[in-house]
Specification:
The chain is of the alpha/beta class. It has one domain: TIM Barrel (Alpha-Beta Barrel), CATH 3.20.20.140. The chain has helices at residues 18-28, 40-52, 72-81, 104-121, 135-143, 159-167, 187-190, 227-238, 242-257, and strands spanning 2-7, 30-35, 56-60, 87-96, 125-130, 150-152, 171-174, 199-201. The chain has an eight-stranded parallel sheet with strand order 1-2-3-4-5-6-7-8. Helix 2 (40-52) packs parallel to helix 3 and helix 8 crosses helix 9. The longest helix is centred in the middle third of the chain and has 18 residues, at 104-121. It is globular and about 45 Å long. The mean pLDDT is 98.
Length: 259
Amino acid sequence: MLIDIGANLTHDTFDVDRDDVLQRARDAGVSHMLVTGASCEGSEQALNLAAQHDVLSATTGIHPHYAEEATREALTRIRELATFDDVKAIGETGLDFFRDLSPREAQEQSFIAHMEVAHDTNLPMFLHERDAHPRFADILRQHRDDLSDVVVHCFTGDADALHAYLDLDCHIGITGWICDERRGSHLIELVKDIPADRLMIETDAPYLLPRTIKPKPKTRRNEPHYLTVVCKAVAEATGLTYEVLAEQTTQNARRFFRL
């Protein structure tokens, strides 16, 4: 059985067939999925969706793209949502210096504010980082002792970033990016450096459809049932069998999210 630690199942592309998507995931052996909250509204939707399905849990947070929306009122709501049993982590939060859709100062302030919520609630953190190393590590380092578990999800960085996050006792989430020969092939070597007890896998659906799927799907929409493709790629990269990698990452996810 597999656990998808990051799926954007509230995305409107799933509105027409969400129940079928969940069934395909279960049929493929995906036993649980974490629905990512990326805004106040999105976090409420993630919680509501998780409450309707026993195979779902949720995170609550404001993505760095929307950091300017992280007002006092919004963060109070995030804190309130964190009290629900179906919410298993604070995030998605962090830094994104690739698109810079919010000013970097606002991203940093939102990141720090989310860490305060995680400290107060004792929930693990679900973090986003793209093209923001080493600033991301510098900020996290200042607060790491106040936090419980931390995962840098959808890791796409280089060796320096990976080892900085491992030194900060972070878990690492690997997506179908590892299946992308154009930009993700470096992960095939790097994933070997991730300790077995800190590795988890995810789809980030509907994004990051693995490019190794054959035959190619008719649409570019990624789904949680393709987590099997990610598991296969990571298993091959680490020299493990599919079954061993699946068991390790599932145990890690259950422990991390307290499932």
